[in-house]
Predict the structure.
Amino acid sequence: MKDFKAVKEKIREKVRETVNWAMRQRQKVSWKSPAVLGISLALVVAIGAGAIYVNTTVSAAYLVLNGQRLGLVASEKAGNDLLNRLLNERGQSLGIAAKTHDKVEFQITRVKKITWLEQELKPKDLKGKLSAYVDGWEITVDGQSIAVLPRQEDAQKILKDYEDYYAQPSSDNQVASVSLAENVGIQPVETDPGQVLLPEKVLTMLKVGKTTTKDYVVQQNDSWWLIARKNDMKTKDVLAGNPGTTEDTMIKPGQVIKLVTVNPFMTVVSKGTYTTTETIPFDVVSKTDTSLGAGQTVVKQQGSDGSKVVTYAYERKNGKDLSKSVVTEKVVKESVTQVVAKGPAARITVAYASRGSGNVPALSWPIQGHINSYYGSRWGSFHSGVDIAGDVGDPYVAAAAGTVVSAGWDGGYGKMILIDHGNGVMTRYAHSSQLLVSVGQRVAKGQTIGLVGVTGNTTGPHLHFEVISNGSTLNPLSYLP
């Protein structure tokens, strides 16, 4: 659109120039001459043109928003086009048009062009005055809003993608059913465009979970690991919420620290079956050989692990097993027992190969985690237990009831606990960061006795767990459920 103010000013300037020129020329000639008549005509034309421009009226309309007259538009259609353009811009990033509940009216009128130029409504004049909303789709969890998306299909796909994130079927994982534990709903809602999120951002938010931060006042005798235990957290997570701290950072009563926890927005419950290949650890049989010297040991037959294909039925929450049971089990390769000959000075017994056999009581896992290192030959030597993964500060429990016969530093074992369960059976727990029991103490099965650490000869945090019968170590996996 031309700048009518600039045009008006140029016309006025030309009129002034013409008038001045005519007056100068008139002083030079007789008023009766043809030149004077031409000059007079030029004056009339110039002054008339300016007057015609200034006095011409045009058709227009006042745009009235919520009872307030904001300015002039060329027509009602032009005013609606302006409003629609602004609303489309508000919803452009979401791919949907915004709407308004504002009351819009038009007052048709005729105004002088100079009035039109002075009161023409520009987009910037509507900034902050025109309210806008979009029709979004809100996801609620147990009645609480967690996100608003542009379209219903966006919300539905987000929930499906979130379920698949924890329960993705594959050739090894046959998912029978998937559901959300919470009451999850999708409903239409009118909201400010700035409150609507794009699907990619919402899915990332759901995967990360919701972060909650609270203050904790340090109590007498508190330590980082004890604070973690009190709040059902891991030591590393407590430290992460307080940047710059380590397990060696001193804390004192009355000090305020941050406890930062991350919890899922929703819980995906899945049921199905999965198939996996598992190692069958080989057993070790110790036999007395009188031809060997006291304390001498010779491997007569090298052991080797076997393998089996196992199909489990499971129920999971957010990808973690709640329960699982064996459906089928097929041995692919049999394990080979390792035979060890020992000199007569050692007290020798044969290790029990079958789960729960002999005088070993029913054991429970001292800590939940994957196996970092199995029982048997390892790196040219013999590994007398299993290494169960854990983080520094994670608690572990007694695998069976018994009496603590040793609790302290023991060479390469680091901080170690030895429990006597009777009938010549003992269990050992090594590389601890802290021991929570003492010698002579009676402990119950499942009682917390220590914390995972990296003491002694170890390459990383884990729990070294041994089962010992009459002085000889057994494969712990043969006695664990």
